[in-house]
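Narrative summary of target 7.
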Amino acid sequence: MYETNAAPKAAGCEFETFGRERWTRSRPSKPEVDVPRELMMNRITHCLSGLAFLSLAILTSPSLQASDPITLDPILEQVENNRIKSIARATPSAVSVFVPGGAGGGSGVVISPDGYALTNFHVTSPAGSFMRCGMSDGNVYDAVIVGIDPVGDLAMIRLLGRSDFPAAEMGDSRAAEPGDWCMVIGNPFLLASNLQPTVTYGILSGVGRYQYPSGTLLEYGDCLQTDASINPGNSGGPIYDAQGRLLGIVGRCSFEKRGRVNVGVGYAISINQANNFLGYLHSGRIVDHATLGATVSTDPDSGVAVSNIIESSDAYRRGLRYGAEILEIDGRVVQTANDVQNVLATLPNGWRVKMTYRFDGKTVNTLVRLMGVHLQDELLKKMSGALPPPPPRPQSPEKEGDKKEEEAEPAEGEKKLQQRRPGHRGPAKPAVKIPKQVQEQLVQRKGYANYHFNQMEQNDFIESLRNQFPLDVSEPEKPVTQPESGKEKTAWLIQGETDGNPAKPVSIQIGPDQMSLSMGDQKIQIDNRSDMYDAVTDGSVAGLLPALDAWQRMLREGPQKFGESYYLGTMPLGGERPLRDVMVGIAGELEVRWLSHPDTGAVEVVEVFADRDEDPAELWLIRDGDSKSMPNMLDLRYGLESRVRIRVTSWEQIPASQRDATSNEPIPDTEAPSGDQPSEPETDEVQP
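Modeled conformation, tokenized:
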């Protein structure tokens, strides 16, 4: 999509060329006036004399002798040197994206040494599963799709071939202000055929802009506005601050409607929004954005007022009602309905964030689980029924007199997804062969951009889980794994006391097919899955049993046999950062989530959902030591309420046949007899 536009003619103006390129301006005709020849010659002589005197003064000036070196003001020189260094620091991480087969391309930016890079969803869509990426080092690398965010117009790809890619230094887009210097580095009009990107410089013209989807999936919230030159092909590329730190991902630009002329209004997705979605994109999934489950309006007297709310939303369970005034979301003050939309547009579906609101004269600080903008099938349907605008193609020389009509660039509000025409067939294109190293990292599955990367995260999770407490007490350094055929199954015996006054003795036993809880005079036993469901929906203290059972079964069976399992991404824990890794396992009617610390891998919370419209049982594991140390406290919560806190004094593994803590009956061992039937080989790793 490259076209050459002649300079627009102003009304009543003409341009002529004489020898060297020179423009002379012909004004609209006026009545002719006779000027005496003598007067005209006097004026010309006077002008020439003035020019001669000025030239002589310049040439004889001591400060402008050719032999003297030109010096700059030290401050100006420092500014220029810093600018040059910043460009040199930023350029190596910029990526020129090319769609195989010559179908266009765009730009991107590497964010980690192992090759993960960000670009736009509308840049990767025409490429599909893989693309070719050039860098300023002069090399071209194969790249594979990782995950996509079609609503926020983000995509993650991974460049292959090395493990020491130059990565961009992350900036803070929240700290950016209008007037700050910035630069855009990318591949406009696919000009980087020599792999050297184009650099344009400008300022941030605005921050916190909101661009409506305009009937498409692409929503730009809380984005940056810049006057640095952005053209087709810059999409997906980086915008840096004056120090060369990454501020965002270029995505949209406003063009003069008839000539595709850049009018100095470009938009970039903030890097803070991108950081919120990095974990979700690493999951290889097709991800969605968040909504509060309520609509709001700007009230001149009371700020942001709730105008409608879904009763099944978590916000409603936290007490938000019609007419309530929302003050903060995720730590950000909101004063208008546009502020609310800007904040929510930067958050992934399912996040639990802090919210402050005022209702009935009371200020409430709470935590809210955010809903998704779309249902999963709805999101996939919208994607399958639409295509992004075609990316720019390299310019090819045209024969004289041969003019090709090209598509106009979408105007302001741009980038409408063009619908596929039913039954439309274009010219056949030769199939592009997928490189072997791309095939090795590509697994297709519904709901995923690339399931391979979710498998990698699942394997990392189970490996980490089996190398933290509880290890096999018979062999302290041996991880807990699936018992070998013929060996007796084991159970957990956890003992302690309630954290109250007076303290009550507690004994918990979790076996393969039965679990029990003894707390003072209260005794609870669960023998089947339906009882676990009821324990969660009732909000009782028995809710800690299905959480412990899920933890034990995941250790024993691994993600592949637990049920439908997948890596969700990262999210705050209790509204607090750093973001935790989240693994999901679905077995029967229960959905279980394990939230792990990103640095240690230690599981900090196990959540069990029985009904999406009710609070899950949350088992918080509180440790004084590292991930291999025994939790010294178990805290069972529903919503914001702690139901019971147990100080743990011992945690053992015992034979499953040992008598239960609450009865005189042994826990039955339902291990199938070995007989002569062949056993299925055990494996822990998730396979394609």
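The CA atoms of residues 273 and 346 lie 5 Å apart.
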